[in-house]
Write a structure and sequence with these properties.
The protein has 204 residues and is an alpha/beta fold. The chain contains five helices and twelve strands. The strands form three sheets. A five-stranded parallel β-sheet has the order 1-2-4-7-10. Helix 1 runs antiparallel to helix 3 and helix 3 crosses helix 4.
Length: 204
């Protein structure tokens, strides 16, 4: 939950790093955005801003602008995501229908692919959720651990106590144990490492 300007800055930076962007926008990116903006990151930035303004009850011009932008980009991209749902390092690779109930609470380093849905209330989800295309988490009071990957077109409708699991089917069942989606090496693992370094810097 974002409750300070330091946390806000960190969350926005973490989302950028996870998407493969520089920690700060350089002149070249400003020029590129002028002609073709990265609407997904723009949506996430406004989402984080709205969370900050809502959580701190600071509803000035910035709140109204980013709330408007959050909703406008959501319609354009097909996203309906609660502003206080996800921790830092959220990755949305493509635009397309994504519906996430605003009462869901999920951890850090989550991935949302297209045509995904988390419906119903009371969801508690750990870090590193991976929602493949067409995956759903439905029903009320469902709890999932860390490093849960849900296969394409699968539906989870009950809690799974363990972590490091691949869930497959409709309704989903445990297919096998699986480590975090970003692995121990490679570009995503290095991004996760960098984000955790930034967290220690921003939120000491």
């Amino acid at each position: 939950m974002i409750s300070s300007k330091k946390e806000l800055h960190f969350y926005i930076t973490a989302d950028r790093v996870m998407a493969g962007k520089a920690e700060k926008k350089a002149l070249k990116e400003y020029i590129t955005d002028f002609f073709k903006a990265d609407d997904i990151l723009g949506y996430q930035r406004s989402m984080r801003k709205v969370a900050y303004y809502k959580n701190t009850s600071k509803k000035g011009p910035g709140y109204f602008y980013h709330n408007w932008k959050f909703k406008k980009l959501g319609v354009r991209l097909g996203f309906s995501i609660g502003y206080n749902v996800f921790g830092y390092g959220l990755l949305i690779p493509h635009y397309g229908t994504i519906v996430i109930n605003e009462h869901t609470k999920a951890g850090n380093f989550c991935v949302l692919h297209t045509a995904t849905c988390i419906g119903g209330e009371g969801k508690k989800i750990g870090d590193a959720l991976y929602l493949s295309s067409g995956a759903q988490i439905m029903g009320n009071e469902v709890e999932l651990g860390n490093n849960i990957s849900i296969a394409a077109n699968s539906m989870v409708n009950k809690s799974f106590a363990g972590s490091n699991l691949l869930l497959v089917g409709m309704p989903a069942a445990v297919k096998k144990e699986l480590p975090a989606w970003y692995g121990e090496s490679g570009k995503y693992a290095s991004r996760v490492k960098r984000i955790e370094e930034l967290r220690a810097k921003f939120i000491a």
